[in-house]
Structures are given as C-alpha cells and as structure tokens.
Amino acid sequence: MHALLLIAHGSRRTASNQEVQDLARKIEAIAGSQFDSVSSAFLEIAEPDIPTGIRRCIEAGATAITIVPYFLSAGRHVAEDIPREINKAVSEHADVKINCLPHIGANPSMPDFLISGVSG
Amino acid sequence: MHALLLIAHGSRRTASNQEVQDLARKIEAIAGSQFDSVSSAFLEIAEPDIPTGIRRCIEAGATAITIVPYFLSAGRHVAEDIPREINKAVSEHADVKINCLPHIGANPSMPDFLISGVSG
C-alpha cells in the first residue's frame, strides 16, 4: 500500500488547517491507483504532527509513503525542520519506504499555475 | 500600466526569498500582454515590504496593481495581516486600482497541480 502524506506548517486558525485536510481529500479523490490513501500532517501547532501522521499511514497498512512538503519556498522549515523529522521516521520505520519530494513551490510548473489562477 | 505583485511571507534564508523573486521573473516572462511588470514583496523579515513593493509599482508607472498572496492556506497572515497592509495602501494611493486576489492555495486547480508534481 502506498500513502501520500502532505506536510503543512499548521496554523492557529482551524479553517486554515481544515483547508489542508480538504485538499488531501480532494487529491485522494483524483489519485486513482497511484495512492491508496492521501492524508496530511503538520509541522507545528496543529495535529497530527509529522511522526503521528507517518505512524497513522503505517498503521493503515502503508508499506511506502510519499511525502510532499506543502510549502512554497525553502525556508528553514523545508530545509531543516522537515528533513529532521523525516530522517527520524526513516530510522524508526526501516521496513517502510519513505520518500520525501521537493516542496511544491519547486514545481517547475508553478509560474504557469500562478498565472492561470490570475487569469481564471 | 498593470503590475502583478506577489506577496510572500519572507524568510531569514536568502535562498528562499530569491525563489520568490525568481518566480516573479518567470511569471513576467510568460505574462504576455496581461501584465507590464511582475514583482514581489514580503510581509515580514525580507525586503521590500508590502508598502515599498506597492510604491515601486506605482513609481514604475502602474495605474492598476493585481496582488496575489503567495500563501497556501488562509492563516492569520492571509486573513488579517495582508488585508490590513493592502487597505492602508488603497487609502494612500486612491488614484491606483489595487485588487487583491485569493491566496494561491485557494486555486481550485491545486489538487491537480499537486498530483501532477508527484507524478512528474
């Protein structure tokens, strides 16, 4: 089983965290056979935190987890904090294939995506 | 003249702020006749700040400024801090049409954009 896990910053505003959870659900609906589940976890403030998010994927049967940092630019959180959390998880769950992709701001299609939103 | 202004959070990491400035340049390259200029400003930490970013657009000849908050979810910054800064700018530059779009995380195509980055 292959899980996709979005990692977002986390906010004190419930509506903001809910946006991320809603996005995970929408992605799950279009993921087809690519992922068996799509969920979210938060670096700070909101729950579940990253270790809990990863553990829940594994408890649900994931043998592979693809992680996408839902961040726009590679600040300290993307460059240091998230890799540190993921490295810990990798060493704790050696039997699970955990792969972290670049943050979504690094997607080379971002300029097109942004201008399409402005035009739309 | 119509300017597009991205507003990002701002980071202590220069590379992170540079990512935003690079993005603005890439968007300018594909904006065609839609925008005469594309630039960026930062809510916190980095320069230019929002009032300076708006003033520079106007000094460069902008009579209309479209602002896109380069944020993924509507936390406090998107819900309160950026609107407050923009409202101030609107009252200070009454002769310029300043329009703020939703944050990019609200783009209804975000699920497709995200899954395309995972697949790609």
TrEMBL record, chains A, B:
It comes from the Bacteria. Keywords: Lyase, Metal-binding. The keyword Cytoplasm does not apply. GO terms for molecular function: lyase activity; metal ion binding. Pfam families: CbiX. This is Cobalamin biosynthesis protein CbiX. It comes from Sedimenticola selenatireducens. The lineage of its organism: Bacteria, Pseudomonadati, Pseudomonadota, Gammaproteobacteria, Chromatiales.
